[in-house]
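LAB NOTEBOOK - FOLDING QUEUE
OPERATOR: T.R.
BATCH SIZE: 2
PURPOSE: Compare the predicted structure-token outputs for two unrelated chains run back to back under identical settings.
PRIORITY: normal
REVIEWER: second-year student, initials M.K.

ITEM 1
FIELD SEQUENCE / FIELD STRUCTURE:
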Amino acid sequence: MDRAYHKWFSAAVNKEMELLVFGYAGATVLFFPTRGARFYDYENWGVLDKLHDKINSGQLQIFCVDSIDKESFYCKDKSPQEKIERHLQYENYILKEVVPFINKKNPKSYKIVAGCSMGAFHAVNIALRHPKLFNKVVVMSGRYDLTKQMGDFKDLFDGYFNDTIYYNSPNQFLYNLSDNKIINAIKKIDITIAIGENDSFLENNKHFSQILNQKQIYHNFIIWKQEAHKPPFWRDMVYLYF
């Protein structure tokens, strides 16, 4: 399987950032890591092994990016405002550095954005905020509102709320979205949402699906058996949905 490692200093986040590219052609997948995970973990967990044939045959090219969640949403030493500001720097890294890198490597490709767990939040958030950049979204075991406690997963902003957090809370800003141009752009995206029946985020996913239905945004919403919030399930999900 074609595999390439890349690293460069990112002006957006003011540090060196790393990523892995698997494959040489086909639809491109911008793949966000899980909470606290790294750019190499999907490879280590065998998730990409399920895509071996599609990657080798030139159907898919996977871009596994790194995360700075430990410096933003999960940084205990930062205030909520500092957390969301650091996240926006990360979004700029993706938009201004990674997306152009993908376009240079594979011009005019069909573009998929995906993620598991916290990576699913990143995928949905960036796709809804910038819908013209992506053709397809595949999200697995995600949460789409970081301001709500869900099971043992707490509100990541400790009750603090402002406009910036609102516009990075997909369940909230999509619910109130009335701009038909943006809604129509989102409608053009092929959206697949997968979640386990025992996952702490199930109700949040159901709410997200309900909002999409209210906006008449077609999507696939699949509930898996068990919690399904682990690599063995994600391996099967990527095989089915990528």
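ITEM 2
FIELD SEQUENCE / FIELD STRUCTURE:
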Amino acid sequence: MAERGEYKFHIDVFTPLTLPMTRLKDYIVGLVELFGNDDFVHFLRVDEGTAAPACYVEPRILQKVEHRLTLIKSGGADDRAMNAFTFLNDKLFDDNAVAELTDHQGQVLYFPGRESIRAPEIGPITELGVLEGEVFQIGGKDETIQIYLRDGERTHICTTSREKGREIAAAYLFKGRVRIHGEGQWKRTKDERWKLMHFDVSRVEPLGTDKLSDVVTRLREIESPELEKIKDPFTYLDDIKRDAGDR
């Protein structure tokens, strides 16, 4: 049984004697991206039986890696991690294989590979949109400036002019969550995820930090004779939708 911190990537169609070295390299590259924390994850061996590249995660970052893998399973990890999952799954699809990543307790992730339903790629599609998060980095060496926006585990990279970049840095860098409006290009990948390819910033606005309960309290304090006449809010909303032609 594997010890805590050891992970194995079991590929069902290969053995150590049939797995080409060039393909092993591809899978290891994908695993490096999957785990992140490159300096603290080590390749151990390819186990006997079904080919299973084994890796070891150092104790100092094991909890961080376990959290990262949990987010990948739920689809909420950052772009690097989710792209790594897609990369590995694409390689498995090409090899007519499936795989699972296991630790000392059992399966951590399942890679459907050949069982995947391959949706056609769509895009890129250009349309207006909004992104939310905290501006944590701004930089660039030419007239185009990159705005780095952190939204939980995800990072969005936007572009703007040098002048607007200076304004955004002065007003919003490390100063809480903002909403960025602009024009983006999105592409739907084969695993049916929408990936942001490019986003041009048009304007930025700060997001309030008030608690929801405080906002509700202030709304209830608004005096309005018209609102007092509404006895059934849901029926009233349905009437508005009908008048607008929504149904």
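REVIEWER COMMENT (ITEM 2): The first strand starts at residue 6 and ends at 11.
FOLLOW-UP: none requested
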